Amino acid sequence: MPRLVDLRLHNCEGINATSMASLSECVFLEALQLDFCWLLTSVTLDLPRLRHISLVNCRKIVELNLSSPALVSINVTSCPILNRIAIISTALEKLVLQKQQSLTTIMLQCLCLSEVDLTGCESLNDSICEVFRDGGGCPMLNTLILDSCESLTNVNLNSISLCTLSLTGCLGLTNLQLACPRLQKVHLDGCDYLEKASFSPVGLYSLNLGICAHLTELEIRAPQMKALEMKGCGALSQANIDCPQLHSLDASFCSLLNNVFLASATAACPSIELLVLMSCTSIGPEGLLALQRLSNLTLLDMSYTYLTNLQPIIDSCSQLKVLKLQACKYLENTALIPLHKGRALPNLCELDLSYGTLSQSAIEELLAWCPHLTRLSLNGCVNMHNLDWRFGACNSYSDSESPKKQNKSDLRDDKINVKGNPNQLLQHLNCVGCANIKKVIIPASAQCVNLSSLNLSLSANIQEVNLACLNLATLKLSNCIALEILQLDCPHLTSLLLQACGIEEQELECTIQSCNLLETLDVRFCPKISSTSIAKLRLMSPDLKRIFSSF
Length: 551
Known about the structure:
The chain contains 8 helices and 37 strands.
């Protein structure tokens, strides 16, 4: 049948390897289907016009050899013992061979092949990289997917055409070397045992190494990279990063990276604006002086470190806008004094001191003398006591006096007193989980006209909240089970979250009456709020759009 164009042999149990010889005479054959041919063990075809071939559920096929310049599609599915594939084609652009568990050898001469998906080919070994390197037979390869190829241990690729590489779930991968100057996307999720990685050179704009807990050596040369995340690489001790356009670097929990790393990184990446060194405990004060090279640095996170004072940061980061110092339990009580009145870090507008051990007086002085801050987080601060802005414990400070010269007894009251300051710029105040706060009082005289968000959730001992804040829009008091008194003069309040609070029905009703713009009220799991009260609240506040309750 020399003129045969389309041949479909579906569920033909008599078809075997010998039968393939007769097909070599079908020189005009364009489409061939061999699905469910269970006795077929080998297919070798040299057909110049063959465009489509399908082998589905060929349970005994071991080898597939195709030579067809016109081949554009190949469907190989559920061939459990297929071991070897060789394809020669000048037209094939996409090759998908998913879940061929026994496949160990692939030979390709496909000049137009741009996408290859070998997901779940568990038996593929490191030699597969030879196929996809420059000179390996796929000069136009753009996308390579090797997800869940668990036998891969050493992936070494150099390709001038490769743009996307996925190695998700390659649990056996320990060494990765990529020299792909056009590579823009790489996926490494689940490569938990990666030990050495080199990306030099690559065209990546961003790289997320996930949590590579065993990664010890890293080299990156990426002229266009903007963001690099190394979070959780706790064993990483050597990192050579050359990314002149890098904007954001997150090295959280890389506890072995030291001063030498920071010095080299800042020298090679002078454009960094956001730097996260959370729990980088091997970087000391001397190392922080290298931050002087980062003239554009605006955010620095030194949480969970052994910082005792801010002098190295003050000396090196004059343009800093955001400083995060969560759980810096060794921070001295006098460490924040240079920040008072904006003398140091004049552009600083956001400060996070959550879970620290600063004394009450240090917190008091900060609130009184840093009115330029717009966002302040004091979550979980054990020394955070009553927040009472009615009185001016700091009023006696003159412009020329330093707070540290004041009588210490004036600062150790059980209240945190803040001087009313017409220049108070604070917009967001977070005091989540402050177990020692019992009262929060901010009167109109405090002139906190910019305060728009106050979060006191999980502060279980708060009994009284009395606020007069003109522009307060969101108040969060969830899980404040001891709350008894809630008085609000906040005409622009739109969201009030009281989930699991101990407030009485009558107190809540009185509070709601003064909040004419309230849109959202959350009283779920409030033990003292009944369904009757919910109905009454709806009548009292017809503009209330959302009431979340347990009824």
